[in-house]
Write a structure and sequence with these properties.
- 24% of the residues are buried.
- The radius of gyration is 12 Å and the shape is globular.
- The chain has three helices and no strands.
- It has a single domain, classed as Orthogonal Bundle (Non-ribosomal Peptide Synthetase Peptidyl Carrier Protein, Chain A).
- Helices cover 44% and strands 0% of the residues.
- By secondary structure, the chain is an all-alpha fold.
């Protein structure tokens, strides 16, 4: 598991209030359908990702494709930061 994915799980539990144990959140699970993230949750998720990774996600990037799973969001973060960057916990 990458540190980015681990940080995203922390954000989902601590800031978006997904009610699952961390190790039960699969990187391929649908954030909306499987984890129940709603519209406000996606806005909070975007804000927390920007804060913790020191990036700015444009409106063009704030799409269902980029925010569909932990894996897709990790790909977006990697495109911004490079694969070696870790979260700023």
């Amino acid at each position: 598991m990458s540190s980015i994915e681990d940080c995203l799980r922390d954000i989902l539990i601590g800031d978006v209030f997904v009610e699952l144990e961390k190790d039960r959140i699969l990187s391929t699970a649908s954030l909306r359908q499987d984890l129940g993230v709603d519209s406000l949750g996606f806005v909070e998720l975007k804000a927390q990702v920007e804060k913790r990774f020191g990036i700015v996600i444009s409106e063009d990037e704030f799409t269902p494709e980029n925010f569909s799973t932990i894996s897709s969001l990790t790909g977006l973060i990697n495109r911004h930061c490079g694969s070696g960057r870790s979260a700023q916990h």
